[in-house]
């Protein structure tokens, strides 16, 4: 975690305006609301737009298979040193088929032994996007087993989680009570 306390604190139930309550209720009903969303609720219109786009990235409309999508999200979160992003998506990644060993290996990157050719290419593309905002021709060719839409969704997924990581890090969103900070992401 980059910050030990929030710069923008998550809104408590008591502090929510009617517009903020409506925005959160539309997504979560009366269920638990994560700190990221309680923080973003400070800007209800931005929150609603963010949720629409994020909803696409995490839906079946994204043509990346859920496991590959989570591989990419975790690598982007790790590259951006986003402890919150990493902790949330470790849980989601496991639900999507990533193993504990694969999750540990994501930190080592695309050249770690054990990746399939396509997994290594997805990780390499993520590294290139998070360092230079560009996938090289060599890596693009390594992604040739993906459809054009899958390659587009790859770039859009890394872009979304780059934005998410920047917000989490800069706003100082702290872990929800049920999450554990990865020791490699302690700043």
Concise account of the structure shown:
It contains nine helices and no strands. It has 187 residues and is mainly alpha-helical.
Describe the protein.
- The chain has 187 residues and is an all-alpha fold.
- It has a domain at 66-163: AhpD-like (Up-down Bundle), CATH 1.20.1290.10.
- 59% of the residues lie in helices and 0% in strands.
- It has 9 helices and no strands.
- It has helices spanning 18-28, 35-40, 44-57, 66-79, 83-95, 100-106, 117-132, 137-142, 148-171.
- The longest helix has 24 residues, at 148-171.
- The N and C termini lie close together (6 Å).
- The relative contact order is 0.18.
Write the CATH homologous superfamily of the domain at 66-163.
AhpD-like
CATH architecture of the domain at 66-163: Up-down Bundle
Structural class: mainly alpha
Element-level helix/strand string: HHHHHHHHH
Rg (CA only)? 17 Å
Query: What is the helix content?
Result: 55-70%
- Shape assignment: globular
Major pleated sheet:
none
Mean pLDDT: 96
């Amino acid at each position: 975690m980059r910050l030990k306390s929030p710069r923008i604190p998550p809104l408590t139930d008591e502090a929510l305006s009617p517009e903020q309550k409506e925005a959160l209720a539309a997504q979560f009903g009366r269920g638990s609301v994560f700190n990221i969303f309680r923080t973003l609720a400070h800007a209800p219109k931005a929150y609603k737009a963010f949720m629409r786009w994020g909803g696409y990235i995490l839906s079946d409309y994204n043509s990346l298979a859920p496991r590959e999508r989570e591989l990419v999200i975790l690598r982007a979160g790790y590259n951006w040193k986003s402890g919150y992003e990493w902790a949330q998506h470790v849980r989601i990644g496991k639900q999507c088929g990533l193993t504990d060993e694969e999750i540990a290996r994501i930190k080592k990157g695309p050249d770690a032994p054990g990746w399939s050719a396509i997994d290594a290419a997805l990780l390499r593309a993520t590294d290139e996007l998070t360092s230079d905002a560009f996938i090289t021709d060599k890596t693009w060719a390594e992604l040739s087993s993906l459809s054009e839409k899958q390659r587009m969704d790859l770039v859009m997924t890394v872009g979304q989680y780059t934005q998410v990581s920047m917000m989490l890090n800069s706003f100082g969103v702290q872990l929800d009570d049920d999450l554990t900070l990865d020791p490699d992401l302690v700043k």
